[in-house]
Design goal:
This protein is an all-alpha fold and 241 residues long. Helices cover 79% and strands 0% of the residues. The protein contains ten helices and no strands.
Length: 241
């Protein structure tokens, strides 16, 4: 009863992360998937209750993160319908976090917004009616990133600009055209911050978006997605020797 709300939300986050970690290398048909679903369900129950009781940017973002991990679990298990449902719910959670950040003019609005955009991209693959990103909302995200990089830059705000350009290129089916600039942008950030632990998170997020994209989009666009993902995964791999 003496535990803080912060401790509770981090407990939910840790449960979600551990549930995905246990199944991410599991073979198809493994009983670990059922265990992972149960654990993620428990994490989501806790996180959703907290976000409902006292909504914050962090709590809605953690809900989005847990839904995203459930989507990855279902992708790994081969359950396309369940994956799509989890992706939509991840987008909804990040959208709520983004709305709170916008209302409070939070300097880190870009964080839930970029995650919302990533989820919308994955959901859009299965929705022929998806018209792409709202231009005004995308402009707000770009302004948030630019302002942060001018005032108090860090790894996430620097790499966030490259991720934003990646998502807009994918939405416009112009990845081949923008690939050289994207690779240069990611390489520039890597020159300043080569830490593989940080790039591991970037590569995981890229895989969430680019793996289904390269399967759904044939030809040069799919090849460009595979090459860009390989680049980012290389940044996340520790060098030997």
């Amino acid at each position: 009863a003496s535990a803080s709300l912060k401790a509770s939300e981090q407990l939910g986050n840790l449960r979600a992360r551990q549930a995905w970690a246990r199944v991410q290398d599991a073979p198809a048909g493994s009983p670990l998937f059922d265990t992972g679903r149960q654990e993620l369900g428990q994490a989501l129950e806790l996180l959703t209750a907290m976000a409902t009781l006292q909504p914050t940017i962090e709590r809605h973002s953690l809900c989005g993160s847990a839904w995203k991990r459930l989507a990855l679990l279902e992708r790994r298990a081969g359950n396309a319908d369940a994956e799509r449902d989890a992706v939509r719910k991840a987008a909804e959670a990040y959208r709520r976090a983004e709305a709170l950040a916008s209302a409070s003019r939070h300097p880190d609005l870009f964080y839930p917004a970029l995650n919302r955009m990533a989820a919308e991209l994955v959901a859009g693959l299965a929705d022929p009616a998806w018209a792409g990103f709202d231009a005004s909302a995308t402009a707000v995200v770009r302004q948030s990133l630019q302002a942060r990089n001018l005032q108090d830059p860090d790894f996430w705000s620097m790499v966030g600009l490259a991720e934003l350009e990646l998502y807009t290129a994918l939405a416009g089916h112009r990845l081949v055209e923008h690939r050289p600039a994207l690779e240069a942008g990611f390489a520039d950030v890597h020159t300043h911050v080569p830490a593989t632990s940080l790039w591991g998170s970037v590569a995981d997020q890229a895989a969430f978006v680019l793996e289904p994209w390269r399967q759904a989009v044939a030809g040069a666009e799919g090849d460009a997605a595979a090459a860009l993902l390989a680049l980012l995964q290389g940044y996340a791999t520790p060098r030997r020797g």
